[in-house]
Amino acid sequence: MFTLPDLPYDYSDLEPYIDTETMHLHHDKHHAAYVANLNDALAGHEEFLKMDVEELVRNLAKVPEEVRTKVRNNGGGHANHSFFWTIMGPASGAAGGQPSGKLLEAIKGSFGDFTVFQEKFSQAALGHFGSGWAWLVSDKGKLSIVDTANQDTPLSEAVPAGRQGKTPILALDVWEHAYYLKYQNRRADYIKAWWNVVNWNEVRKNYETAL
């Protein structure tokens, strides 16, 4: 069975950039619903309930066709949100600012400059039509920015046998439930504020693990 992970910080810790009420709604209601629906969809398919959620979404083709769409949507929702919580943190702590070390070098190598990267990532998030996500992914150390619709994830991309696909190292949720209570329809304001709570230490760890 899949379970809802605890937040790695208090609901109020991302204030004033992401408000407490949104964090309660986003984690306790939306994410919890993805977990419940995923378990419901896979009832009777114990081999999949024993998988790690990232392993599950990497292997959607093996899921029975009659429940595959529900697993894709809710498994993606569970995987994406479980990842999303970890790459944020209190602005009073290690969050905000810029990354360092190999990650910063890789960003400069791929985009020329950190500020250019921020602008391109923000544009991808702002320009995504409807609900979805913006991602920074690593492919053998090479970084690129992609966006996905709904709860799709780069983990589910088909890749040649024996080769690991694109690994997410940073993500931004641009579903309206992620920001509407505080920012209404001002997605651009939400994106700008979100940079203040990016936990670059965790993003760096994701990048180093992906190498």
TrEMBL record:
Keywords assigned: Metal-binding, Oxidoreductase
Catalytic activity: 2 superoxide + 2 H(+) = H2O2 + O2
Entry GO MF terms: metal ion binding; superoxide dismutase activity
Pfam families: Sod_Fe_C, Sod_Fe_N
Annotated InterPro entries: Mn/Fe_SOD (IPR001189), Mn/Fe_SOD_BS (IPR019833), Mn/Fe_SOD_C (IPR019832), Mn/Fe_SOD_N (IPR019831), Mn/Fe_SOD_N_sf (IPR036324), SOD_C_sf (IPR036314)
Manganese/iron superoxide dismutase C-terminal domain residues: 99-205
EC number annotated for this UniProt entry: 1.15.1.1
Positions of Mn(2+) binding: 26, 81, 173, 177
KW Metal-binding (keyword) present: yes
Keyword Ligase: no
Coiled-coil regions listed in the entry: none
Recorded superkingdom: Bacteria
Limits of the Manganese/iron superoxide dismutase N-terminal domain: 2-88
GO CC terms: cytoplasm
Family: Belongs to the iron/manganese superoxide dismutase family.
Function of the molecule: Destroys radicals which are normally produced within the cells and which are toxic to biological systems.
Name used for this protein in its record: Superoxide dismutase
